[in-house]
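BACKBONE GEOMETRY TOKENS:
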Amino acid sequence: MQHLKYLSAYPPELQEKVRRLIAEEKLGPYLADKYPRAHAVQSDRALYHYCSELKQEFLRVSEDR
């Protein structure tokens, strides 16, 4: 049985559905169909920069108040 690190808190039924999709090599197409618009954040580095920009933006706004 495959350990699903990021889904461990989800119900066993959902985890089993994901395992089945992985085994059938259908998880990628399933997610692409469910979420057709992909975002630009595709790496840990890009996610870090995106979060840093949000943090700077909202910290600047809170200082003005």
Notes: The chain has one domain: 5-64. The two ends are 53 Å apart (CA to CA). DSSP finds three helices and no strands in the chain. The CA atoms of residues 17 and 46 lie 30 Å apart.
